[in-house]
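Each lists chain and fold; for instance:
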Amino acid sequence: MVVELLAPAGSWEAMQGAVGSGADAVYLGGAFFGARAYAKNFSEEELCRAIDYVHLHNRKLYLTVNTLLKNRELEEQLDAYLLPLYRQGLDGVIMQDLGVFAYIRERFPGLPLHASTQMTITGVNSAKMLEQEGAARIVAARELSLEELGQIRRETSLEIEAFVHGALCYCYSGQCLFSSILGGRSGNRGRCAQPCRLPYQVGERKAHLLSPKDICTLELLPDILQAGVNSLKIEGRMKQPEYVAGVVSVYRKYLDLCLEGRPAAAWDKKQLRQDLEFLRNLFQRGGFCQGYYRQKPGPSMIAFQNEKKIGTCRADIRKRKEKIKGYLMLSSESRAILEISSKSWNGCKVVVKGEVPAQARKHPADRKRIVEQMCKTGDTPFVFEDFKLQMKEELFLPASQLNSLRRKGIQALEQKILQAYQRQKPPKEATAMEFTRNKDLSGGAVSLSASCETQGQWQVLNAMDGIKELFLGIALFEKLCQQEGAAYFRDLAERRDWLLALPYVTRQRDLQRLSKDCEQAIEYGCKGFLVRNLESFGLLAKKGWAKRCHLDAGLYTYNNRAVDFWRNQNVAADMTPLELNQKEIAHRDNSRSYMLVYGYLPLMVSAQCIQKNTGKCNHAGRCLSLKDRYQKEFPVQCCCDFCYNIIYNTLPYGLLEYKEALQRMGLHRFFLSFSLENPAETKKVMEAFQKAYGQGEVTQGFSFTKGHMKRKVE
């Protein structure tokens, strides 16, 4: 198995530092579509130069296109952005958006597709799905254990990239709307304002409750490699070049020890302690943790004080030089011949010719001086490790001619190396996709669907007419199965369409249980599933139930190509994204989409448990209150059945008066999501929306947020 050390490059200097310190590959962003919009990103010219730079050092460069793209961005900007980089020899693209994934797969054949950690890939089923769709590599969710990574390795042929050092997100990447909803700066668009790094209060405890420590997995490297990880990823595109160079140099040392077959027990313990201290002095936040590889979520992973400690240690930015060999033949009877070769790049060799040397009359050229002159490689990527000179007679060759010959040879070598990476123009254009003209459905019939998580909500909604589909939370389904039995659900199926709402996150430990629940639900008359992650979809698709899948908003369909991607998977419906405004929704294909019109928006879905981190977890599924510095309270639901937390927005989202505007956008299926409401609140809200979307009568007195409907997300 080939293993690479993958380093971040937020600037040209950081890239040089990464390569010079031993990185096998770098990942970086350009002017558009990167998840670190505030990094010192590269222009098109700089990106092309960077691709050449890493290739001349026999390294790789991956481009981050890991944001969600709106229709106009994808159709009018992406191709022009990627085409010169594709032709230059770009080694791979890291992406989150499945519309972007489908576009690049069609338009740029042969360009490796890397599925970003923001896809929240948590297991074999999601990995296999992406493998079948053409992914070469997945960047695993940071919450995965070594066991889960090992299973993906055993059951797929995908490369696995995993984070080994740097900052951790508090929530599952891609499952965060906190910055977006509160401040309009979306993490899905590369502009996260990091609200997780601010102080919050639960009860009497006030601290940085959502701020994880940085990870440092130096001591776990043998185990991570044993699990089958191909690419060891260092986080830090916003960090200084000295940080990147320093971290890379330390991980390079210990990765080489692993590749030499030296177990951790044989490492020099004193040197290891010194290197860990060096890393701590480069940067750390409240100390280090080892991530989720062998550790369960808990307070030991949280930097409650969020103290950024930057020490005095600084690493040198070393510029790497590649070793080459030279052979110069000089004769008065023929032109000078220079041969340059390298063991790297499959033994690449070039031959160039210079002027015919003159026979020396008074001052013949000194052999030593000729060799010294020829070995002056200056700022080029190369250094001669060996240089031979064949010269049988006394000759004279000016220094200017020697310099010219050397430059000509090195330029020829560079050109030959780079040509091996470069591509021709793609063989065909991507299929054109026009902007949608949704049919105006004003005055037409509408349908209301609702989901619920508690027994009280279920009893209220189940007793009401006018709800086309009822989605039942899976934990509630299990509870009702125990209380009521199969006959209850079969009778229910005779009266109305009921469906199963699956977990926000699905892990390996959940698969057997989830599979059994879904099979039982189908047997009891369930019409389909509300799917909230790729792992759940992969499981259901494997069972042949893709047509029963209704996608929640967390499976993003920002653009029409993403909509088409999912239609090609034969799903029943999708959910209009929560980060598009009214104008943008109007240009999206909404013909088979739900529109969320009510619900507490999940701002974060996290493997961490606030109850556990501030006290003791009693597995009771409590709802807590998280208070920010402005005394706003955010409800936190402890979903103990599947072991994750949901942090909800302080106010529910509600589009009570938007019926006609949404119909004009081609929408007629409207969705209400009940999560925290008591039975009385559930009834009041449901009746208000039935009046508003039925008779057009808007009930006053509700406090709702409109999300991004009137506000463009950055």
About this structure: Residues 450-600+659-694 form a domain with the TIM Barrel fold (CATH 3.20.20.70). The radius of gyration is 30 Å. The chain has a mean pLDDT of 94. The longest helix spans residues 399-419.
